[in-house]
Amino acid sequence: MIANSLAKTVDQSSVYQFLILWGTHILFALVLIAVTLFSRKHAPVGHNIEDDYIPENAVARFFAKMNPADIFMSGIAVVSFLLLLAPEIFYVRDIYSGSYKRSNTMFKFTFEAFVLLSLVLAYSFFRFLCIRIKSRRQLYAFTAGALVLTLLIFVPMHYPFVAIAQRSGDISTKNYVGLDGTAALKTKDSLQLTSVTGDLADYSAAIEWLNANVKGTPTICEAFGNSYTDNCVVSAYTGLPTIIGWQTHEWLWRFQGVVNSEGELVSIPGKDVWKMILTPRQNDVRAIYTSAGVTEALTLLRKYNVTYLIVGDLERTQYVDINDAVLQDLGTKVFESGTLYIIKIR
After folding, report:
1. What would the pLDDT profile of 123-132 be if each residue is shown by its tens digit?
2. Are residues 68 and 205 in the same domain?
3. Is 171 a member of any domain?
4. Which residue stretches of the chain have pLDDT < 50?
């Protein structure tokens, strides 16, 4: 549980930024809702309307003559509007404060809204092509509206071209490396390591070995670190649990808090996650890698039921006093690549 209380949003999104992000999607959704409301089904020639079942309920009668698919997609549009509106009214309190206080709330709600509104936009685009034109005046109005909506599509279409280039570089067959998400590790330069080019290649080899040879989910031990770093890369790419991961995420997902008199979220007395979980585990991992004796290291490893110990350059950078002699005496070396090795704890 990352939070347990709500707060009223103080700083809402500016109108122009909100419309830049959502204007095109919202306009398509509103036009679809209008089409749904005003495009009633008409009985075909020769059809006896007395044969139709007429609902007694007023709401059912209102929707009875509408296209069910239009009603469904319009409903999705309304849900999307509520998802966009919610973070402008309240946010879920968590560990973040200041200008970041509603970041998680905004992300969770608007991510869903984007997916739903994109479906609405795609449906609307083709639904509008099916509108029956009855007069020249309607044709002119429809053509003008279609041109405006088509041009507006280029606003959100611009984003992927910029974002993908920033994230992945030029999109070309020359840069294509396949669908394997771990392939980039073979040539990736870590920001924490400055030794050689492609300094995560040993970790890539270790990940491949663990994925191929280890069954189940035994616990591993590797260096912890800050969020969005290369620390904990082995647990991330194998799915194997580690003693402690990225500290901010560990803090966020274990935090339990209450609101104080100033309206700030603070730790529940006696349940400080740093004091209870993060700091003790970080100290234990540090002690394992820098221990002067086998007995101390084994006691800590068995405390967390660790099966595999990862020792590579990320660990050596994190713990400058690493003791390779002790670590290699903790069990059997089952894998080695370059400067990295894996010990299976006895």
Report:
1. 998 888 887 7
2. no
3. no
4. 43
- Beta-carbon count within 10 A of 272 CB: 16
Domain at 227, CATH number: 3.40.50
The whole-angstrom separation of Cα 126 and Cα 254 is 46
pLDDT attached to residue 295 = 95
Q: Which residues 6+ apart lie within 8 Å of 289 measured at CB?
A: 223, 311, 315, 318, 319, 322, 323, 327
Q: Report how far apart the first and last C-alpha atoms of the chain are (Å, whole number).
A: 36
Residue 137 counted as domain residue: no
**Domain enclosing residue 46, as ranges:** 6-132
Same domain assignment for residues 101 and 206: no
From 223, 201, 216, 243, select the one nearest 340 (Cα to Cα).
201
Q: Are 207 and 185 in contact (CB under 8 A)?
A: yes
Burial group, residue 162, by CB count within 10 angstroms (0-12, 13-18, 19+)? exposed
Q: Which residue has the tokens 């080019």?
A: 197
Q: Tokens standing for 224?
A: 């912890």
Residues 6+ apart with CB under 8 A from 106: 87, 91
